[in-house]
């Protein structure tokens, strides 16, 4: 029977596995659920028990009509596996076994390949931080430095829990920023598409009718007709130019630091969006500095990591300036005040943290405050833009309708 099971679990000499959904109870008595890859339901149950979970239900996950994803690894995936590693380490599961179980249970082929490569290097005797540094696309310097600090201190489980919290907070903040940027872009795109359709396809129909009137048209109507004629004649040039500009700007933004810096400087000055980006940069700065400082990374190095993680050129330059001042012996709160971009409340909380010797805890509170403010600001922006979309579209469509019907109203008045 065991031989038969083993033969079924292999195909072409390689172990096969399926994705299973499971439900169970953890060591705290809480109901938990998730997905795990294994050779059989029994294999999945063994994996769960080794993680401290008592399984109550395990069944094969139904496959999507379009196939189960094997897409590329993204930042959200890294955040998830970081939390999984942190949980297993805190439960006493060895690092090698933890990575092996996560690799075997992950539904993305790309993630399985990534983790398997790390596992092979780890089993060859390399430090975990060195294994991660071989994949800079997925594990940045900050991540690797924190893991290295955990290995050096012998408290990798504690450090990994901090890394997991940091990654989760960073991803949540990134999602909020994307949401804040999406709505203004959506308003403009919808407005442009609707206006273009009306000018290219609807206005010409009215233009044919007006030519039969033989009367002088109102100035507003003539202006709309001229715009419509221009759009009909050159729409492909306008569309091609917009696509070309977008492509060139995207490439320049990716390859030219000066373009990125100028874009950052411009965006933070925008109304509504600018204040949200300011708060997000402060939240990233405080969260990164709190995590690295608490992990035992020296303040100078922690500031360098925080500069890179701030996500904005204005704050990156300011934080590097703070680092230079701190190296000369100046207190960090004084250096922060000199930059002129950090709010007084943040500077005061940092000063209290320095005086009390609890800088990491105070920075964590600053990060929590500003993450909540970003969340509230994004929700407020969403509520504001919903009626704004209707106003913008109503004004554009209404204006075009008025322009087209104005000659008819004028003729009715004459009659």
From TrEMBL:
Location in or out of the cell: Cell inner membrane
Main localization category: membrane
Taxonomic superkingdom: Bacteria
Keywords from the UniProt entry: Cell inner membrane, Cell membrane, Membrane, Transmembrane, Transmembrane helix, Transport
Cross-referenced PANTHER family: GENERAL SECRETION PATHWAY PROTEIN, PROTEIN TRANSPORT PROTEIN HOFC HOMOLOG
Family: Belongs to the GSP F family.
Stated name of the protein: Type II secretion system F family protein
Organism: Corallincola platygyrae
Organismal lineage: Bacteria, Pseudomonadati, Pseudomonadota, Gammaproteobacteria, Alteromonadales
């Amino acid at each position: 029977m065991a031989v038969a099971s083993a033969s079924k679990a292999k195909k072409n000499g390689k172990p096969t596995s399926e994705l299973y959904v499971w439900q169970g109870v953890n060591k705290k008595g809480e109901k938990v659920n998730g997905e795990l890859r294994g050779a059989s339901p029994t294999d999945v149950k063994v994996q769960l028990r080794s993680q401290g979970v008592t399984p109550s239900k395990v069944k094969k996950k139904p496959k999507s009509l379009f196939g189960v994803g094997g897409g590329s690894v993204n930042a959200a995936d890294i955040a998830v596996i970081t939390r999984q590693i942190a949980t297993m380490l805190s439960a006493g599961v060895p690092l090698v076994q933890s990575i092996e179980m996560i690799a075997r249970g992950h539904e993305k082929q790309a993630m399985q390949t990534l983790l398997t490569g790390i596992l092979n290097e780890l089993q060859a005797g390399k430090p975990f931080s060195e294994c991660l540094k071989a994949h800079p696309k997925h594990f940045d310097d900050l991540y690797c430095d924190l893991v290295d600090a955990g290995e050096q201190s012998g408290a990798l489980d504690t450090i990994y829990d901090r890394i997991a919290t940091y990654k989760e907070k960073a991803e949540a903040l990134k999602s909020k920023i994307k949401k804040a940027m999406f709505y203004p872009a959506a308003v403009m795109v919808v407005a442009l598409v609707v206006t273009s359709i009306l000018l290219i396809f609807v206005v010409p129909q009215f233009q044919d009718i007006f030519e039969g009137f033989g009367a002088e048209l109102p100035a507003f109507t003539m202006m709309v007709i001229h715009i419509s004629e221009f759009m009909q004649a050159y729409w492909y040039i306008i569309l091609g130019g917009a696509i070309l500009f977008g492509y060139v700007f995207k490439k320049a933004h990716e390859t030219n630091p000066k373009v990125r810096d100028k874009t950052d400087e411009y965006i933070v000055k925008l109304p509504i969006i600018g204040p949200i980006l300011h708060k997000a940069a402060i939240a990233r700065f405080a969260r990164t500095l709190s995590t690295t400082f608490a992990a035992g990374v020296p303040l100078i190095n922690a500031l360098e990591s925080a500069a890179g993680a701030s996500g904005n050129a204005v704050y990156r330059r300011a934080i590097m300036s703070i680092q230079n001042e701190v190296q000369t012996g100046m207190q960090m709160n004084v250096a922060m005040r000199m930059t002129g971009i950090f709010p007084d409340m943040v500077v005061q909380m940092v000063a209290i943290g320095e005086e009390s010797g609890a800088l990491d805890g105070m920075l964590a509170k600053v990060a929590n405050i500003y993450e909540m403010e970003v969340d509230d600001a994004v929700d407020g922006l969403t509520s504001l833009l919903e009626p704004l979309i209707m106003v913008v579209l109503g004004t554009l469509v209404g204006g075009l309708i008025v322009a087209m019907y104005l000659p008819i109203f004028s003729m009715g008045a004459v009659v």
